[in-house]
Design goal:
mainly beta; 17 strands; Jelly Rolls; about 35% strand; 1 helix
Amino acid sequence: MNPTSRILAVLAAGVTFLTVNTALLGEDAPNTVSMINGKDLTGWKIVGKGDSQWTYGKAAMDPDRPAKLKIDGPGEELISTNRTVNLSSEAVFGDCTVEVEFLVGKATPGNDIDSNSGIKMMNIYEVQIFDSYGVAVPGKIDCGAIYSETPPSTNACKPPGEWQKLVIEFRAPRFDETGKKTENAKFVKVTLNGQVVQENVEIAHGTNVSRKAPEHPTGPIYLQGDHGAVAFRNLKVTPSGP
């Protein structure tokens, strides 16, 4: 197609062209919810014992203790520099897409607590966050795994101390009018740093310690803080029905 024909085609596409490119540019949908306000924990409930060590600032890996994080100046990133309580959102969601960027330190050999966190859909279905950089064949507790259930199809991890992006497309379990479950929850797609690591993975129950937890049609978003240092930013949830 010559340049003149290309321009005419673009003009003819009109609103459709503009709509498609809005999506391609990554603009938020009208119903997208930003979950981190950059100031405090409004909208979150504390889960676990002890005082919250979550704070805001600019996160960086601590060069003196590479498994930990440090606050490297003011900022709007949600940071736990060490182990702390977990967070569960006050808002609940059904089918949705979760987008978040995270940062972890360097895993200590033989220690699966350092550099370990996770995002739990509905408080019980966990996508693992971990320093799995360089792991040749990732397993069920490596980054991007459906924790203890399904390993990621590829290792898409960046080195520790670098920001990474996780996108979770989730389909909630279905129930009939009596409350009986008729369809399992499903991770429609999990993308780590632009690579698909899970696709169409059904999960018949909660993961790991939540294996026997009750299932529901809606539930919170859960940030794990009780394993190791982690930082989050740009956490957004876009409901998609039903």
